[in-house]
């Protein structure tokens, strides 16, 4: 349970008399947080202000009474606040967040704190719930009639004040709660509303590319006017007509038109632009009024399911996973999720006011059945790499065009250019890595681009801070693409049932700065790297099984200890040292920008492909260390005390003074380039390893380690400094 911190609660909330205390009780067979009136001791209600009190009254009752588990803030119509809550998104032991949720929290730029259990989080913002729905999956949002249990333990990086987030960031989170259900459930929304669906520009362009008039839109968007007798003005109006069917937002139509091939200087004439867009908006309104009923409805109003479904599938390509029923849509060379949302939009757009929820459900079910695929048929060609300008065939060394019959969920955000070079990346690698490790990194970079996992390796970058590890991982993330990367730690993969599912469809799992906490299990790690079939489980969704394609890549200042690591564990590691430090004048704060230009990334792609060819030809990485050498290095960097003891300590009838032992350990650390820990920490670790200490009963009464000495050393060699501090250690 997170300890309540009274000082960190925002003053904006403290000023309001909208507080309760709460207690965890069993209700209907499960633990529930029940609110109580701090003044009267009766149960409180989030809809009854008489049961609320001031912050000071609630805090005092909680701290002095001892019968309550915390305090809570009630949201009301009378305030300007809104709360967003996320459940089960943080590991309370390691402090690791679900990275998607953490990004959502940061995007709000407002006060956010941990939940009492430490497993969840909530943010308080200025604003209101954007729609009617309040909860889906792990997310909840309320601006009235609910209370939040408050801890006053802020999330690192969140502001102290309560702010109003940008409308875009709030809407992006709410879309995951609403998932366009208002479109599905209410069905009769007014098409004349300018912000009726609130799609972003890029989303709207993709919808138009896959709508019933997709071919017409594509030609116009590319700048073709031949269908209009090369009449530029007629083509302008035709493009605006299509856009107006999907948005009534004047400014959005203007922005998208400016991205088209039809855009020219004339468009920026205010009279011409306004006249054209207004005419398009009038046209669409007149058409909807004149048509009355869609051609996909029979005379008695029944939906012609097959007709509209086949029409949608003629203009769009879908796949549906047989095990979970998830629909993916083809766009820009790959299949993307949220196919159901596109289908719902297209049906709603076509049927207008005649659309009903069951219409959309019928079309979705029809398309699902018609597009079923097995999960194993996806991303299974290890010789083809999907890039922005086509599909690179590594076997034939040719760039092939994108095609919907090549079922691929991943695309590398790089343009293939066979003659491209990357001088900045080459220079960077030479500065931060040992020369013998650079070929290994090149091979790994190529290995990451494919769905291949047969080499059963993972990479660990290690070394002290400010040495280039994080920059390299940032480069890798940009190179492979954020959409193709998961971010699970070793600890989370072993202990969180849901984390493995996040690897599905990814090329790499990247996690920087692993915590130096012991990992007691490594079976999941071995399954992931060993090519085993994995079980995926997502909250509130069906379980599925998949062949993993994600390679594992981590960084750490000190490696996490793995007491149960054996040969099968250590043989899977490639350890790459980063020996140099870049601080002060040596630090280049603009470096990542130089490394990730389109030209540099295209050049790095060529290096990666060469590395992949070398890897396949040699059938192994250019990594010279044996498993035993890897094991020894790993143990040294993860548990230096154990490594020191294993290498240097032997049984002895005589005890060894603690200060002598620690002196040898400090010397050993310097020889192995390992950060020295304090003498107290050294002693604690020695005891955990089974070594016992005692104070000598005679003489100077030094504190010693019993029955152990250092190889080739006599504990009586030399003179021991007998000051008062040493006697008491």
TrEMBL record:
<dbReference type="InterPro" id="IPR054468">
    <property type="entry name" value="NrSPol-like_HBD"/>
</dbReference>
<dbReference type="Pfam" id="PF22763">
    <property type="entry name" value="NrS1-1_pol-like_HBD"/>
</dbReference>
<keyword id="KW-0347">Helicase</keyword>
<keyword id="KW-0547">Nucleotide-binding</keyword>
<dbReference type="InterPro" id="IPR004968">
    <property type="entry name" value="DNA_primase/NTPase_C"/>
</dbReference>
<dbReference type="GO" id="GO:0016787">
    <property type="term" value="F:hydrolase activity"/>
</dbReference>
<dbReference type="InterPro" id="IPR014818">
    <property type="entry name" value="Phage/plasmid_primase_P4_C"/>
</dbReference>
<dbReference type="InterPro" id="IPR014015">
    <property type="entry name" value="Helicase_SF3_DNA-vir"/>
</dbReference>
<dbReference type="InterPro" id="IPR051620">
    <property type="entry name" value="ORF904-like_C"/>
</dbReference>
<dbReference type="InterPro" id="IPR045455">
    <property type="entry name" value="NrS-1_pol-like_helicase"/>
</dbReference>
<keyword id="KW-0378">Hydrolase</keyword>
<dbReference type="InterPro" id="IPR027417">
    <property type="entry name" value="P-loop_NTPase"/>
</dbReference>
<dbReference type="Pfam" id="PF03288">
    <property type="entry name" value="Pox_D5"/>
</dbReference>
<dbReference type="Pfam" id="PF19263">
    <property type="entry name" value="DUF5906"/>
</dbReference>
<dbReference type="Pfam" id="PF08706">
    <property type="entry name" value="D5_N"/>
</dbReference>
<dbReference type="GO" id="GO:0005524">
    <property type="term" value="F:ATP binding"/>
</dbReference>
<protein>
    <recommendedName>
        <fullName>SF3 helicase domain-containing protein</fullName>
    </recommendedName>
</protein>
<keyword id="KW-0067">ATP-binding</keyword>
<dbReference type="InterPro" id="IPR006500">
    <property type="entry name" value="Helicase_put_C_phage/plasmid"/>
</dbReference>
<feature type="domain" description="SF3 helicase">
    <location>
        <begin position="436"/>
        <end position="591"/>
    </location>
</feature>
<dbReference type="GO" id="GO:0004386">
    <property type="term" value="F:helicase activity"/>
</dbReference>
């Amino acid at each position: 349970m997170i300890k309540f911190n009274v000082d960190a609660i925002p003053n904006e909330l403290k000023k309001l008399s909208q507080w309760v205390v709460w207690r965890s009780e069993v209700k209907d067979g499960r633990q529930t947080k029940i609110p109580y009136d701090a003044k009267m001791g009766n149960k409180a209600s989030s809809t009854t202000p008489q049961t609320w009190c001031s912050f000071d009254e609630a805090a005092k009752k909680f701290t002095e009474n001892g019968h309550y588990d915390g305090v809570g803030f009630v949201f009301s119509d009378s305030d300007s606040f809104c709360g967003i809550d996320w459940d089960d998104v943080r590991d309370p032991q390691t402090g690791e967040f679900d990275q998607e949720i953490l990004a959502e929290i940061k995007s709000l730029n407002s006060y956010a704190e941990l939940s009492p259990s430490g497993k969840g989080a909530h943010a308080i913002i200025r604003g209101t719930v954007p729609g009617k729905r309040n909860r889906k999956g792990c997310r909840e949002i309320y601006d009235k009639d609910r209370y939040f249990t408050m801890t006053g333990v802020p999330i690192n990086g969140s502001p102290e004040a309560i702010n109003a987030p940008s409308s875009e960031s709030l809407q992006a989170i709410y879309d995951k709660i609403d998932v366009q259900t208002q479109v599905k459930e209410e069905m009769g929304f007014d098409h004349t509303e300018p912000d009726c669906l609130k799609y972003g520009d890029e989303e709207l362009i993709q919808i138009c590319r896959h709508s019933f008039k997709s071919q017409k839109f594509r030609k116009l968007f590319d700048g073709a006017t031949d269908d209009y007798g090369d009449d530029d003005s007629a083509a302008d109006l035709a493009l605006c007509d299509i856009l107006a069917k999907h948005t009534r937002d004047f400014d959005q139509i203007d922005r998208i038109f400016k991205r088209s091939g039809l855009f020219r200087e004339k468009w920026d004439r205010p009279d011409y632009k306004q006249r054209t867009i207004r005419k398009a908006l009038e046209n669409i309104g007149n058409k909807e009024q004149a048509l009355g009923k869609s051609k996909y409805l029979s005379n008695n109003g029944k939906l012609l399911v097959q007709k509209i479904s086949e029409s949608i599938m003629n203009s769009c390509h879908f796949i549906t996973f047989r095990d979970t029923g998830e629909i993916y849509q083809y766009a820009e060379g790959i299949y993307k999720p949220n196919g159901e949302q596109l289908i719902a939009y297209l049906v709603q757009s076509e049927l207008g006011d005649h659309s009903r929820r069951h219409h959309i459900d019928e079309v979705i079910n029809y398309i699902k059945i018609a597009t079923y695929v097995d999960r194993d048929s996806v991303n299974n060609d290890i010789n083809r790499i999907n890039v922005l300008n086509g599909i690179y065939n590594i076997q034939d060394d040719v760039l092939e065009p994108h095609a919907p019959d090549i079922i691929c969920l991943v695309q590398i955000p790089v343009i293939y250019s066979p003659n491209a070079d990357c001088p900045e990346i080459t220079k960077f690698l030479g500065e931060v890595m040992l020369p013998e490790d650079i070929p290994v990194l090149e091979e790994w970079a190529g290995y990451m681009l494919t769905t291949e996992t047969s080499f059963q390796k993972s990479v660990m970058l290690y070394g002290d801070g400010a040495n280039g590890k994080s920059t390299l991982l940032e480069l890798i993330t940009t190179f492979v693409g954020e959409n193709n990367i998961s971010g699970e730690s070793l600890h989370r993969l072993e202990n969180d049932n849901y984390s493995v599912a996040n690897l599905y469809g990814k090329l790499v799992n990247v996690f920087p700065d692993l915590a130096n906490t012991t990992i007691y299990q490594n079976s999941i790690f071995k399954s992931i790297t060993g090519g085993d079939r994995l079980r995926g489980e997502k909250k509130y969704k069906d379980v599925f099984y998949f062949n993993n394609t994600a390679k594992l890549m981590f960084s750490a200042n000190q490696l996490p200890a793995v007491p149960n690591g054996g040969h099968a564990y250590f043989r899977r590691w490639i350890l790459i040292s980063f020996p140099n430090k870049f601080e002060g004048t040596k630090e280049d704060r603009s470096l990542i920008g130089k490394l990730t230009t389109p030209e540099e990334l295209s050049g790095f792609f060529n290096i990666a492909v060469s590395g992949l060819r070398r890897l396949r030809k040699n059938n192994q990485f250019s990594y010279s260390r044996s498993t035993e050498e890897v094991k020894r290095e790993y143990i040294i960097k993860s548990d230096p005390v154990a490594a020191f003891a294993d290498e240097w300590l032997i049984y002895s009838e005589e005890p060894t003074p603690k200060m002598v032992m620690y002196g040898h350990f400090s010397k050993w650390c310097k020889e192995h380039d390992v950060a020295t820990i304090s003498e107290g920490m050294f002693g604690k670790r020695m005891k955990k390893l089974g070594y016992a200490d005692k104070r000598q009963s005679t003489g100077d009464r030094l504190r010693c380690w019993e029955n152990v000495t250092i190889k080739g050393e006599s504990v009586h060699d030399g003179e021991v400094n007998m000051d008062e501090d040493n006697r008491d250690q």
